[in-house]
Amino acid sequence: MKTHKITLIPGDGIGPEVSSAVVSILEAAGAATGVRFEWHRHLAGAEAFEKTREYIPKELYESIEENRVALKGPVTTPVGGGFASINVTLRKKFELFANFRPVKNLPGLKTKYPDVDLIIVRENMEDLYAGLEHEVVPGVVQALKVITSKGSTRIAKFAFDYARKHGRKKVHAIHKANIMKLSDGLFLRCCRDVSLGFPEVSYHEHIVDNACMQLVMNPYQYDVLLTENLYGDILSDLCSAFVGGLGLVPGANLGTECAIFEAVHGSAPDIAGKDMANPTALLQSAVLMLHHINEPETAERVQAGLEQVYREGKVLTKDVGGTSGTKAFADAVLKAMEAPVAAGA
């Protein structure tokens, strides 16, 4: 039996609940496919600070450095003050330059936009998320937008490589170069240069505000969206609405050495501990992780079980129109995963 060491960051709010549900499902799928997981659990954020006086303890950094793969639940980020985003800090620390977010409908779940299948590839380290801001004089704050040819070229190559390998036909670069002529202009030049090496992939450009309108009117015109950091953050939330919301959409932060897989939603402290949270987003993130560590059989088993639960529509959480809790949903996925084994017995 193959063993994978995975750094697990349960998070806070609903994080521990959805993380526990996902771990139980992965372990069951792994047991059926000859895969074992060794979980290295670590705290991050306010809870970690209470116990270690560090928002990201050095043991967590060391664990990710050693394991090179982490699965992360939501961690609360203070608004308008407080400590820096744990997500952004980890991305910078491990140079996780590519944020990868597939947006695809789950079977049986009715939405206003059926059959959506989009990929958002977002530059993950630059732009306004560089966090370079200061108060010039009282009442005047300046924030610096950072765009480099290295970062733009690297993320463009990632997007086009993905499109080529997975048979995607179009890449749209999303920008605001009509206003941000130097920064977004540089991003576009890099995207154009990279596109020349991929003649089989159709290359297009849309201004970000127009892209928002176009997505709402007709998301099917898009295939791969290639974006700077801020635009990608906004568009990925917008696109999640096509398939049922943030509780369903997975996310991956990828670098050359390490990867962190995370749900893209928040910590929802208002429902924490109430057995109400939907673990789907983190579970689909874990499926991305399984593919990343080259365990496609286990990944397909988990995804098939998840999709069967949605297809039947009997045991769903309240956010998607059901009445079940987190544990009942996880149990339903576990039961659904047993079906292929029973059929082939």
UniProtKB/TrEMBL annotation:
Entry's Gene Ontology molecular function annotations: isocitrate dehydrogenase (NAD+) activity; magnesium ion binding; NAD binding
Output the SMART domains linked to this UniProt entry. Iso_dh
Identify the residues that the record assigns to the Isopropylmalate dehydrogenase-like domain, covering every copy: 5-333
Q: Which UniProt keywords apply?
A: Oxidoreductase
State the Gene Ontology BP annotations: isocitrate metabolic process; tricarboxylic acid cycle
- SUPFAM superfamilies under this entry? Isocitrate/Isopropylmalate dehydrogenase-like
Which Gene3D superfamilies does the record cross-reference, listed alphabetically?
Isopropylmalate Dehydrogenase
> What family does this belong to?
Belongs to the isocitrate and isopropylmalate dehydrogenases family.
UniProt name for this protein: Isocitrate dehydrogenase (NAD+)
